[in-house]
Sequence to fold (178 residues):
Amino acid sequence: MHLEEKTITSEAVYNGRIFTVTHDTAELENGQTAVRDVIIHTGGVCVIPVTEDNEIFMVKQFRYPFSEVTTEIPAGKLEKGESHYECGKRELLEETGCTCSEYIYMGEIYPTPAYNTEVIHVYLARGLGFSEQHTDEDEFLDVEKIPLAEAKKLVMDGKIKDAKTQIAVLKACVILGI
Fold:
């Protein structure tokens, strides 16, 4: 049982619209027990839409926990039973009004593995087409287009703080040779 923990008890202490929180007791490899609070999340998808001129579409939105406006790539929560590919297409269209002809899967990330089960699937979108933005009723955001090289600089300068956006921008730069 090296580097493993075994769940002894698990109690849901909160059931919300976006996640559930459990209060668990786990057995450690040395036989001792430890308390583990875990956020159970269905996961999400983020999409970095890149134009032929290597510009990307980003969204600015207010993030309540930090009381600030952040700059991020389009992203959203997976619905139960939804594939991450379909979720990515839906979120890209809803948030930016973009469609695309090519999705490149860039992998998955664990944003906070110490206490959260969320997995975010990361896509690069090419061959963009344009339609209408269809944001959710409680979603208010602005779309902006910036050069991918500028986004990379904003990431490296600490101006883009969102982890999924940082990872997607840097991976896209590697894939596209920027």
Residues 163-176 form the longest helix (14 residues). The first strand starts at residue 6 and ends at 15. The two ends are 44 Å apart (CA to CA). Helices lie at 84-96, 148-156, 163-176.
